[in-house]
Amino acid sequence: MNTLGFRVIWRMTTPPGDGQMAAHARFRTQNLIAGAWAGSHTGRTFAVSNPATDEHLADVPDCDEKDIARAIDAAVVAQRNWARMPAPERAKIIRRCADIMHDRIDDLATIMTLEQGKPIAEAAGEIRYAASFLVHAAGEAERVYGQTIPSSFEDKHILAIRQPVGVACAITPWNFPSAMITRKLGPALAAGCAMIVKPAELTPLSALALGDVCIDAGVPEGLVSIITGDAATIGKAMFADFRVRKISFTGSTEVGKILVRQSADNLQRLSLELGGHAPFIVFEDADIDAALDGAIACKYRNGGQTCICANRFIVHRSVHDAFVAGLVERSRALKVGIGTEKDANIGPLINDDAIEKVDRHVADARAKGATIHCGGERAKVNGGADRFYQPTVMTGITREMVCWNEETFGPVCPVMVFDDEDEAINLANDTEYGLAGYFYTRDASRLMRVAEALKFGVVGANDASPSTAQAPFGGVKMSGFGREGGHFGVSEYLDTKYVSWNVS
């Protein structure tokens, strides 16, 4: 039975004359703690609003150390029983979660668009993407293999077995509020772990909806908890409890460094997917139309608010003008609007700080000599808050500009020229970050040379959408460590135990 614990209630209406879709939602304001829906023990809450309109959506619990302790207490008990459950039975439950997500795709996508701002079609795509992590993890649950190792002694057998680390916690970001949960939750459940999810304060409603999915799929009580509240307070409580053996975080490098320090006392295992500053190289022999298709998809998805979106376009001098002309034409064709408008391509920036950062980056580039070919200022959206920015293409970019050195996290395309392959590689690697990088070429030898030379954890070779459930995803350098996806992601939640068996 579809209880949809949120019991989302909304009306879609078309206001006269402007063709926009207005959405109104009412959300249940409880967390999933230790198998039950509950508020914070203090009764404190905080507000969640729509970044596109400033409409108040809900008030959710502002939890603290006592609430997280309750969740950990329940998780410890639930995890022991879950780990003993046969892997095929665990897999069935994980698959049911994915099936329910597909059944509720319209509801879940609307929740996401309202609290996060991305266009409704993108939100629906994220729900399908999020479910794919659960489907793949369910299969991996049945493929957690150990090894027998040849012994040096005839009276001994050597075994290596893999066991769940125990209770795990996930701290997830606002830009992909469903997929960044399932990318962690699926592997944790597949490995036999319990998980406590702490979603971003800006987008807790999608997380709570997934908690309800877990309940209806038959996830045992206490195995999954969803805790909302202040990140510093909840994170500190997670790291202070020795029973929490694994924490996975997606967010900024600055916060990631703090978490590394906090993990030291209890030596908890970490997976960190941190900031990115992705290059997008277009070589002289590239298929320009394919490169433009990739650039638009990669740069403007979620309004440029993705950790792996292209941030620095590095284009060969011989194709620079043609590429820029195509990029400008396609950028101008995108519609900036409220995400519930079905023809909107780019929604709002998540908050005032985000759009002010974009303002600063563009102003800095302009002041230092960049040419603005389109955009370059905020967009006015009927009925919208002042957080929308026009798709922007800039040329004449130099290394002194802020946009070259910092991740903009907005719909801005800074383009720099290069003359040879070595220069392109050096420009691409000219960053302390190493999450994702992209390049386009039709030369097979160059493809392998450049793929090996780029210092990034994810490389898209003639592919601007490399992320998929079965592949290892993660960064190097200041972009973190650990991998999510495929059997690599499940391994992050497993310990390897060596058993020396004397058979004499």
What does this structure look like?
The chain has 504 residues and is α/β, with parallel strands linked by helices. The strands form 7 sheets. A 7-stranded mixed β-sheet has the order 16-17-18-15-14-20-21, with helices on both faces. Helices cover 38% and strands 23% of the residues. The chain contains 15 helices and 24 strands.
Span between N and C termini? 56 Å
**Continuous helix count:** 15
Helix coverage percent of residues? 25-40%
Rg over CA atoms: 24 Å
Quote the average pLDDT. Answer: 94
Taking the sheet with the most strands, its summary is: 7 strands, mixed
- Give the CA-based shape: globular
**Tally of extended strands?**
24
| Assembly category | single chain
Task: Give the DSSP E fraction (strand runs of 2 or more residues).
Answer: 15-25%
Low-confidence spans: pLDDT under 50, at least 5 residues?
1-25
Strand-pairing-aware structural class: alpha/beta
Kindly report the spatial arrangement of strands forming the biggest sheet: 16-17-18-15-14-20-21
